[in-house]
Amino acid sequence: MTILIVDDNLHIREFIKEIISDLDFSIIEASNGLMALSKFKMYNPEIILMDIKMEIMDGIETTAEIRKLSSTTRIIMVTDYSEKSLIEKAMAAGANDYLLKKELLKLKNKISIN
Q: Where in the chain are the domains?
């Protein structure tokens, strides 16, 4: 199984990789939404962990573009922002779930839920 980690912060990507390192996933990374879209097309990951606020293309726009290509890829928004309006926009764009970065240790449970 392939997982795509999308975040503009290298330290967050490294932390997420550390959390899920014992799972049997092939891990790819992107530092912005445009790069994520390109990597999605190349690798077709089953799960995407998507930051919301990024330069070039944000996570909500990227999620909407990925949803045009796949209805089955699981997209979990991983962000610092808990505003209800952002959560609603992310879910309307096609996100399957939403996780605050301060709750990253709960990530394994979110990934393993089918």
A: 2-112
pTM for the model stands at 0.91
- CATH domain 2-112 topology: Rossmann fold (3.40.50)
CB-based contacts of 33-41 (< 8 A; 24+ apart in sequence): 33/6, 33/57, 33/58, 33/59, 33/61, 33/62, 33/65, 34/62, 35/6, 36/4, 36/6, 36/62, 36/66, 37/62, 37/65, 37/66, 39/4, 40/4, 40/66, 40/69, 40/70, 40/73, 41/69
Instruction: Encode pLDDT of 25-62 as tens digits.
Output: 999 999 999 999 999 999 999 999 999 999 999 999 99
